[in-house]
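ok so for the tutorial part 2 we go from a plain amino acid sequence to predicted structure tokens. step 1 is just haveing the sequence, like this:
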Amino acid sequence: MRSFLQRISSRKFLTAFAVQVAAVVALFYPQHESAIATAALRISALTVMLLAALGYGKIEGQVDSQ
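step 2 — the prediction. this is what the tokens look like for a chain of 66 residues:
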């Protein structure tokens, strides 16, 4: 088992965190005024957030199982 500081300083965590931050920024500060474009951006931002979290969890699970 790795310590908490090793986990949060790993490249996997930092990459997943950066993706989450970018998705949150895109979610709350859309670039377009069109309702359809804003809705599509929000859906894609939520999808990216979910996939980044699931991907990080899967990778950490594989690392821990070894």
